């Protein structure tokens, strides 16, 4: 299983940087030079500044039109770099990480996703994006809604992380971002690490690709972890991973088409009866009724870790809130603009032009001006003559 993580914009490159820390191949693409320099783990030759001619390396200030333009202008540069990283061995999944509410990530990610789909038709393109906080205001919400629409037509799946779930903690915002970035990477990296591990009941890359190839619908990754000695019921722990508190998206999991559950821990805790009880429950609950599973008994392990992936989700409160807010705003904004235009037209209609109120001769201007470029000398002479008269 080979994945390439490509971070776009500040949020996206910070997440990609953490993937690089845990040894995934990662690339950072941004319009802000400062943000690229701030990264710690992605090697310098894998950091690409785009749109320098447009923004002079200063970011796009939440303007997705500039973000889109920056990515379009430097797409050949980005695609060349991706090609050189890939070499001769195929990529199974490109994961594009970004913030839905900014400018570089929101504007640039759909452009890059489209180019990757065209150039690498056998690879999956999966978007991993952070949804804006409600308090950030209307602009990030609109950026998110439009980007969701665009990506839903290009990407195979969209793993959306709802930043609003952060508010449940007491941390300041940068700590809270750090925490959620860490969580995203821990979940997805743990899942990817369990794919293609040899064994009887394990997951391979074709299982993961099957689950994520879901026509641009939403996916979410749940997680639960506990000390092996403290696990009273493994089936309860598995269920916890895909319940609301285990997921970073408000979603109706019953609308999911596919699921995937990976359980890793000491063999004495991974009891088949417990695991099948939870899987039966989950299979019955989701609409698509297809759950892939992997069991990873590991005698060295002292903890039990469960990662669940649910995909094909089209029923999500977090997403609906964003789309409806953006649509309502757009409608009322367009209505207000139309009204302002109508009012302006009505107010100003019937006004004469200058020529109607200042007939020629009254001011003397028409006698002085002969239609040619002003002849300053001539004007001065004419004025003098008039004065003399
Ligand atoms: N989860 C998470 N969300 C973040 C983080 N940083 C920013 N965000 C969210 O992402 C959105 C802003 O995206 P950024 O990545 O900062 O913006 P950008 O794509 O770099 O675009 P510009 O700054 O406009 O050039 C906001 O809605 C934030 O809530 C982060 O580290 N983690």
UniProtKB/TrEMBL annotation:
Domain of life: Archaea
Major place of residence: cytoplasm
Domain Tubulin/FtsZ GTPase: 2-199
GO biological process terms on file: cell division; microtubule-based process; regulation of cell shape
UniProt keywords, alphabetically: Cell cycle, Cell division, Cell shape, Cytoplasm, GTP-binding, Nucleotide-binding
InterPro entries in UniProt: CetZ, CetZ_C, FtsZ/CetZ, Tubulin/FtsZ_GTPase_sf, Tubulin_CS, Tubulin_FtsZ_GTPase
Short name of one Pfam family: CetZ_C
Gene Ontology terms: cellular component: cell division site; cytoplasm; microtubule
GO molecular function: GTP binding; GTPase activity
Localization, UniProt: Cytoplasm
Family membership: Belongs to the CetZ family.
Name the record gives this protein: Tubulin-like protein CetZ
Source organism: Thermococcus pacificus
Source species taxonomy: Archaea, Methanobacteriati, Methanobacteriota, Thermococci, Thermococcales
